[in-house]
Amino acid sequence: MIALNDIHFRYKKKKQLFENLNLSLQPGFIYGLLGKNGAGKSSLLKLISGLLYPDSGECRVFGYDASARKPAMLQDIYLVPEEFNLPPISLATFVNINSVFYSKFSHNQLQAYLAEFELQEEDKLSTLSYGQKKKFLIAFGLATNARLLILDEPTNGLDIPSKSQFRKIMAASLDEDKIIVISTHQVRDLENLIDNIVVLEHGNIIFNQNIAAISERLAFEYNLAGIPEGEVLYAEELQGRKAGIVKNLSGQDSRVDLELLFNGIIKNAPVINEQFAKLNYEY
Ligand SMILES: Nc1ncnc2c1ncn2[C@@H]1O[C@H](COP(=O)(O)OP(=O)(O)OP(=O)(O)O)[C@@H](O)[C@H]1O
Questions:
Q1: 167: part of which helix (H) or strand (E)?
Q2: Within this chain, do residues 196 and 245 fall inside the same structural domain, yes or no?
Q3: In this structure, are 190 and 214 located in the same domain?
Q4: Does ligand 1 have an atom closer than 6 angstroms to the CB of 40?
Q5: Where is the signal peptide (predicted)?
Q6: Strand order in the sheet with 218-221
Q7: Could you tell which of 7, 13, 14, 153 is best to mutate to test the pocket of ligand 1, judged by most ligand atoms within 8 Å of the CB?
Q8: What number is the ipTM of this complex?
Q9: Is the pTM of this model over 0.90?
Q10: Which ligand 1 atom is nearest residue 82's CA?
Q11: Is 141's C-beta closer than 6 angstroms to any atom of ligand 1?
C-alpha cells in the first residue's frame, strides 16, 4: 500500500504546491491521475517515488519512507517518466545494465512485450522514435515486476494500435500485489482500463472515486434535451447539442465517459462530489 500523510511541498521560490495532502493507493488497482497542466501530477509521482522530498509529512511505499530511497523499495518501483534521455546503446545493453536492479525482472516477459510492441533488442535506443522509446520503457517497466508501476503520460506519442496494445498489456499485467498509477491528459486512452480516478487541481485532490461508484451514481448523456434541470450536474456543447453528466437514477450502471467526467469535475467538483457523499458515508 502507498500512503501519503499530510504532505506539504513547495519548489524553491514558488508558492505552496501541496498542503495537507493525503492519499492512499491500494494493491490490485489501476489509478488514473488526472489534472490540468501544472496541477501537480508529475510532482506527486516524484514524491511517491522518492525523487522529491516533502517539506513535512511522509510518503510510505510498501512500508518504506519513500524519501529514504532504500534499495528494497526502489527495486519494487518503476517510473516511466514523461520526458527522458536514453543513452545511445542497444535495447539489449540497456536491459543488461538496468535489469540487475530489479530482483523479479523477467527476460521472458520482456521479450513478449517487445514482440507485442514490434521492437528489436538489437536496435539502438538513439535510433528509435519517441513513441518507440516510450514503448520500450513501458515494456522494461512491466518486465521489472515492480509492485508499483508509475506511468507519466504513457500514451503520449503512441499511435492508435499501440494505444490499444498498451491498454491490453496493462490490464493483463495487473495482479493483486500491484499498484499501477497512470497520469495523463489523454483521458480517453484510459477508458476501460482504470479502476480509480484521482483528480488534482492546484495541488489539491478534488476527486477520488472508483469507477464502479461513478457508474452507479452518475450517467453520461449526449443529448440533454428533455432531461429535468435538477438532474443535470454538468453540461457542455457537443456538436450543436448539449451533452453532460446527470444523476444516475436508472438503477443500472452507466458507461463512464472520462472526458465528460473530467470536464465536469474541473468545472464544478463540489456538485459532482455531492453525489458520492451518501456512498462514502455508507462505507
Ligand atoms: N523543477 C521545478 N522547479 C520549480 N517549479 C516546478 C518544477 N517542476 C514543476 N514545477 C511547478 O510545480 C507545479 C506543478 O507541476 P507538475 O509538473 O507537477 O504538474 P503536472 O500536473 O504534471 O503538469 P503537466 O500536465 O503540464 O505535466 C507547476 O506550477 C510547475 O511550474
A1: helix 160-173
A2: no
A3: no
A4: yes
A5: none
A6: 218-221, 241-247, 232-238
A7: 14
A8: 0.98
A9: yes
A10: 27
A11: no
